[in-house]
Amino acid sequence: MSNPEPGKLDLDYYENIILFNSLLSQEYLATIIEHADPAYFNDKSIQTVFKTIAFFFSERGTVPTATEIKSRLTSEEERKAFNDIANRFKEIDTKFNKEELLSNTERFLKERCLYKTILETAEKYAQGKADPADALKEFEKAYTINLTENSGHWYFEDVDNHIKELTTIYNPIPTGWKFLDEKLEGGLFPKTLTCLVGQVNIGKSIFLGNIATNFVLKNKNVLLISLEMSEYMYAKRISAQMTQIPHNQLKVFTDELKQQVKHIEKQIDSKLIIKEYPPKTVTVRHIDAYITKLGHKGFKPEVVVIDYINLLKSSTKNLNSYETVKEIAEQLRALSFKYNIPFVTASQLNRGSFNTSSPGMEGISESIGLAATCDVICSLWQEEEDKELGIINLGMQKNRFGANYGSCAFKVKYETLTLNEVNPDHFSTETPQQAIADAQNTLDKLSITET
């Protein structure tokens, strides 16, 4: 008989260890109960007893005693199973290394979950009932089992780490726009979801493209996912924004375009990837898988821009529009936590909020669940005179990092689709100091004339 491979776990024997520690320690049981499906146990006796323990714990919040377990075993076969297990426990040592126990238990749960998913998927496939989305969900379930999470932030004990995070780790990424950066304590933070909302054709994609360009020029790797325009169309916009060559003249000035792009590339230490998907064909899980794939190729995004959230597909079937957008928003925000980076996207306003000054979150189409989930929400709107002047207003509607009020006007240079902040007085580019100086000059001239 050959020796077991180094590091290999005897899963069948480990079933006894898991059941034993579930009865021995309430902390251990509470840690595994969310992930431990009784179906993971091959031993029918262990499966029966664990099912009873799990049901009792969900009701009472404590580990049942031997007497309490026996009282719930109604058949002779079940009682025999419990007695058989009790005899096995006599051979198990009561002392365990906690880290080793949790690590091995996590491994057991992942492998058994994976094995169960493969069998069920194969069976459904043979019956012609296989659903890739359901299978992917179960595989993801196995992947996300984690029993060794940290014990949280101990505020008083961890004050040094807290200060370190304030000054180094959680430095925000500046957007390049003074209004936003001041409102957001310096820019976009990791583990956040920011959404721009506006009516149809207001300029949401222009803002998302400018955000992507700004971050790339600030040495941040950007992944731009488009579900509305092709990679070619977005690349054309980015080229115009970066080089200031009008987008309708790019094909004329190709030599200048190449020269400027190469020059910019030498000045920065970042990359931009533009990825298109047809609308309503990809879920957040697909995006997660794509980011993982890019990681294997050496690219790790520091910001993800998605144009736009309503065109993503829900990973759960038969949800209404409210539930769909809410689920997608929650999953995107969870992804921002997983990769420790900010996500930026956009959404549309409903018709009732069209042509409204500073529209509120209640006007977000399809789901107020989006407003509840996002960390930052900014509205985009134009008044009648703004359209003639090429002005788009941005207003702060929700902000977990500061004031949730105020607005700023942006001048759109439509030839290059570039945005620049302008003076709050759209009809004058003068600063207050210039206005005062001009008024004084006028008064001086009048005084001379009168003399």
Describe the structure.
The protein folds into two domains: 133 residues, DNAb Helicase, Chain A (Orthogonal Bundle); 266 residues, Rossmann fold (3-Layer(aba) Sandwich), CATH 3.40.50. The protein is 49% helix and 12% strand. Strands 3-2-4-5-1-6-7-8-9 form a nine-stranded mixed beta sheet. Helix 1 packs parallel to helix 3 and helix 10 packs across helix 11. The longest helix has 29 residues. It is elongated. The termini are far apart.
Strand order within the widest sheet? 3-2-4-5-1-6-7-8-9
Note poorly predicted spans.
Answer: 425-432
Percent range for β-strand residues: 5-15%
Percentage of residues assigned to helices: 40-55%
Q: Which descriptor suits the 3D outline? A: elongated
Quick one: how many beta strands? 9
Q: Output the CATH class name of the largest domain.
A: Alpha Beta
CATH superfamily of the largest domain: P-loop containing nucleotide triphosphate hydrolases
Count of spatially separate domains: 2
Question: What structural class results from the helix and strand content?
Answer: alpha/beta
Cα gyration radius (Å): 30 Å
CATH architecture of the largest domain: 3-Layer(aba) Sandwich
Task: List SSEs in N-to-C order.
Answer: HHHHHHHHHEHEHHEHEHEHEHEEEH
Total of helices? 17
Through-space gap between termini: 118 Å
The major beta sheet can be summarized as: 9 strands, mixed
Mean pLDDT: 87
CATH names the topology of the largest domain as Rossmann fold
